[in-house]
Amino acid sequence: MAISGTRAGRPRAPRWPVRGGALLHPYADRDVVTGQGTLALEILDEWPEVETLVVAIGGGGLIAGVAEAAKLARPGIRVVGVEARGCPTLWTCRQLGRIVALENVRTRVPILAARSTEPLNFALIERHVDEIVLVDEDVVQRTAEQAWQEAGLAIEYGAATALAAVSQQCFARRADERIAVVLCGSGIDGVSRG
After folding, report:
1. Which position among 57, 66, 154, 172 has the lowest Cβ density within 10 Å, counted as fewest Cβ atoms?
2. Rounded to whole angstroms, how far apart are CA atoms 22 and 25?
3. What is the pLDDT of residue 5?
4. Quick one: pLDDT at residue 102?
5. Does 182 have pLDDT greater than 50?
6. How confident is the model at residue 113 (pLDDT cuts 50, 70, 90)?
7. What does the DSSP assignment read for 52-106?
8. Are 32 and 3 in contact (CB under 8 A)?
């Protein structure tokens, strides 16, 4: 499906009709969100003892699906969402108790730079996400660099955002808490491989 571009993070209609095609929103389509939830089920299957899931937030589709599936499978699991401080979309929506569109977004984490979210995602996040925290972009960059240098993981800044929240202790946790961090997306985002 060809999309002509975006406006305020929302896909526009195709420029020309496509026979038999359908426009699927990249993060606010029920089937897409449900599909993203299978990630939580895989984590729970592989590591049944996990207590907390940490997920980066852009438009909210990934965390909405992961949180819903995780809470349905194990109601007591904790889900923590993480946004870059320069684009606190869902954090702001949650603080205000409604969907808003951010006027200014200044972040080095473009994959997470959705100015707003959609009703489907917001409702699922409100219902299933326990906490949303913010991390500074400098910390995200350092975390991506460390992941490469110390573990050989080429993660992009979106994935590094979730990992940074754990490494910087952006949320309260026990020293022995079993935490799974969703590291989706690979790339180098300016990380030097030299």
Report:
1. 172
2. 10
3. 46
4. 95
5. yes
6. confident
7. EEEEE-SSSHHHHHHHHHHHHH-TT-EEEEEEETT--HHHHHHHHTS----S---
8. no
User: What domains can you pick out in the chain, each with its CATH number?
Assistant: 30-182 (3.40.50.1100)
pLDDT (0 to 100) of residue 80: 98
Structure tokens at 95: 């603080």
Q: What is the DSSP letter of 155?
A: B
Quote the pTM value: 0.86
- The tokens describing 79, both together, are 């889900």
**Residue 67 to residue 106: CA distance in whole angstroms:** 27
What pLDDT is attached to residue 7? 45
**Structure tokens of 187?**
């790339």
> CA torsion sign, 163 to 164 to 168 to 170?
negative
DSSP 112: G
- Helix (H) / strand (E) containing 6: strand 6-7
